[in-house]
C-alpha cells in the first residue's frame, strides 16, 4: 500500500502546468477507491470526486496564470476530524451529535486554502483525540495500528492518498503515528500554529502538527502554517549540530529493540561527523508523566463538562475513564501541572546551553507499531517534549525485526523550529540510506 510521493515536486508540477490538476485528482480518487476500503483512513463522502473536480475548476479560474499560483496549488490535504472545515461535519471520532461541534473554520485550514490547497476530506481520528481507536490500519501491515490519535492523516500520507495531512498532538499524536508508518511528522513549538477551530482535547498542550513524506516537503509547508516563520534561518546549517542523548529513566522506557536500533542510528550519525553527547535528564520522568496526564484529564473534563451528563452513554470506555479521572483533579493540582511546563522548558533550555547541544535525539516510540487495532501504542517517548512545548520531528530510521518502520525523534529549543528543520534534513538523508538497505534485505 505504500507509495513514495514528493509534495515539493508535485506542487511545482501543478503550479507550472506540467501536471494537469484534473488528471492528478483523478489518480488520487482512483487510489482512494482501491485502497481505502481496507485502510479506512478517510471518513466517507458521498461524491468526493465530484466535489474535488469542482474545487479544481474554481482554483483554475482563480489562478489562471502559473506565475501567480500559490505554493500548494491544487494539492489535496487530509484534515483530521477534530478540525472544523466549512462544508464538512465534525465528529471528532465520537458518537455525539455533530451539532455540538459546529463553529468557525480552523485558521490553519484557512491558511492551507489560502496557499492553494484543496481539502481531500476528513481523516479518521481516535475518539476526541484520546486513546479509543478508529478503524484505520497501518499501510505497512493492515494487522497493526497506525498509531493515534492522528491515525487517518498519517495512513493517508503513507499510502499516497494525499501528500500532506493535518494532525494534532497532546501527548504523542503526531510523532508516534508518523514513526509507526514510516513518514515525517512535525510538531512545531507550542502556539506556533494557531489552535482555534479545534474540538479541543487539552488546551495547555494542544499542538497542531502535520505529516509529509520527507523533510523537504515538511519545510515547504512550515512557512505557510507557522507564525512569523524566519526563512533566512531555514537555509543550510553551517556546521553539523551537536546531538544530545537524554540518558536515564526516560530513555529506559523504550524497548530493548528500539534502544538497539537507536544505538545503530547514533553510530551512523557519528560516522558521518556528528558529535553526540549523553546527558542525564528526566530523572523524575514518572512525575513528569503523571503531571502531564493529570493535567490533560482535567482539561478534557472541562471541555466536556457541557456534554458529559447528557451524553454519557455515547462515550467509549477509555475516554469516559479519562473524563472521570479529570473530575478528580483539584484546581491546585491543575495549576501545578500547568506551571510545570515552563519549569521543564527552562531546565531543558539550560541543559542544552551548558552542554552545547543543538538537538535532543531519541527513539520516536517504544518500538514498532503494536499488532492489533485495540491500542494505538504508547506515547511516553513523546510526552516530556510535548509537555515542555518544544518543536519535535520524527524521520524514518530503519525497520524493526517485524519489518515495520522505526523513527528517530529530534527535538529543538523553543521557537527554534527553523533550526530543527534545517538541521534534521541531512540527518534524514543519512538514515534514509539505512532504510533503503533494510527494505532491500526485506
Total strands: the figure is 10
**Whole-number average pLDDT?**
96
- CATH level-3 fold name of the largest domain: Amidase signature (AS) enzymes
The CATH architecture of the largest domain can be named as Alpha-Beta Complex
The CATH superfamily of the largest domain bears the name Amidase signature (AS) domain
CATH class of the largest domain: Alpha Beta
> How much helical structure, as a percent, in the residues?
40-55%
| Total DSSP helices | 13
Oligomer: single chain
Number of domains: 2
Biggest sheet layout? 10 strands, mixed
Distance between the termini: 16 Å
Please provide the ordered H/E string of secondary-structure elements: HHHEHEHEHEEHEHEHHHEHEEH
Structural class of the secondary structure composition? alpha/beta
- Computed CA radius of gyration, to the nearest angstrom: 21 Å
Residue runs with pLDDT of under 50 for 5 or more positions: none
* Proportion of beta-strand residues: 5-15%
Kindly report the spatial arrangement of strands forming the biggest sheet.
2-1-3-5-4-9-10-8-6-7
Global morphology: globular
Protein name: Amidase
GO molecular function, one term: catalytic activity
